């Protein structure tokens, strides 16, 4: 049996296309943990609309920034014991999202970090409001910031916090694929 170069290339492309994840194809993220999800970050006017990702800032240090979710974002987070755990530093390095209170760096809001080995902050979760900081019941904002102009996630420290012109109030929700149980419009 004889094959032409073009038929071999077409077969190769077809196999890659079939293997690419899509929202209709089950995937696991991080370490494949049950109940894992991606973090959806969205403003009311959809000016900010994406997924929280870890932006490397140093050895084991990362800020939470917002990137395009793409067709099948990795499920890199779990919510256990009021912690948003991050799965991609490896099994031996437990890490969680930490919403810093902002009282030492900014008067009204602080960084949200995803650092290796960080025990993280406590959060509550409700589908209507998304994640809120358990300590103060407040949410988040995203600002066009220093990381190559990407949106960066910050934690509100005051209900009266001014929202700067380069910032938007956002909700942070558990993201899912529409075939996942209880998934509605990619959140649950």
Keywords:
about 190 residues; Trefoil (Acidic Fibroblast Growth Factor, subunit A); six-stranded antiparallel barrel; DUF7907 domain-containing protein; signal; DUF7907
Report on this structure.
- The strands form 3 sheets. A 6-stranded antiparallel β-barrel has the order 1-2-3-12-11-13. It has a 3-stranded antiparallel beta sheet with strand order 4-5-6, with no helix packed on it. Strands 9-10 form a two-stranded antiparallel sheet.
- It has 1 helix and 13 strands.
- The chain is mainly β and about 190 residues long.
- The N and C termini lie far apart (about 50 Å).
- It has one domain: Trefoil (Acidic Fibroblast Growth Factor, subunit A), CATH 2.80.10.
- The chain has one helix spanning about 5-20, and strands at about 40-45, 50-60, 60-65, 75-80, 85, 95, 100, 110-115, 125, 130-135, 140-145, 150-155, 165-175.
Largest sheet: 6 strands, antiparallel, barrel
Question: What is the CATH T-level topology?
Answer: Trefoil (Acidic Fibroblast Growth Factor, subunit A)
Beta-strand proportion: 35-45%
Number of helices: 1
What letter string, H or E per element, gives the SSE order? Answer: HEEEEEEEEEEEEE
Widest sheet, order of strands: 1-2-3-12-11-13
Name the poorly predicted regions. Answer: 5-31
Number of strands: 13
Overall, the morphology is globular
Distance between the first and last residues' Cα: 52 Å
Overall structural domain count: 1
Q: How much helix, percentage-wise, in residues?
A: under 10%
Mean pLDDT: 81
CATH class: Mainly Beta
* Multimerization status: single chain
Label the CATH architecture.
Answer: Trefoil
Category by helix and strand content: mainly beta
């Amino acid at each position: 049996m004889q094959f032409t170069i073009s038929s071999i290339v077409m077969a190769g492309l077809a196999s890659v296309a079939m293997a690419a994840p899509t929202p209709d194809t089950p995937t696991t993220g991080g370490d494949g943990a049950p109940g894992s999800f991606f973090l959806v970050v969205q403003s009311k006017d959809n000016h900010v609309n994406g997924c929280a990702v870890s932006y490397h800032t140093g050895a084991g240090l990362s800020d939470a920034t917002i990137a395009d979710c793409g067709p099948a974002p990795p499920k890199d987070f779990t919510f256990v014991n009021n912690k948003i755990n991050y799965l991609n530093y490896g099994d031996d390095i437990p890490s969680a999202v930490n919403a810093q209170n902002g009282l030492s760096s900014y008067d009204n809001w602080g960084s949200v970090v995803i650092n290796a080995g960080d025990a993280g902050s406590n959060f509550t979760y409700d589908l209507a409001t998304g994640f809120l900081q358990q300590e103060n019941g407040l949410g988040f904002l995203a600002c066009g910031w220093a990381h190559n102009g990407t949106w960066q996630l910050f934690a509100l420290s005051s209900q009266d916090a001014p929202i700067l012109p380069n910032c938007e109030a956002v909700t942070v929700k558990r993201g899912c694929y529409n075939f996942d149980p209880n998934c509605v419009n990619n959140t649950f």
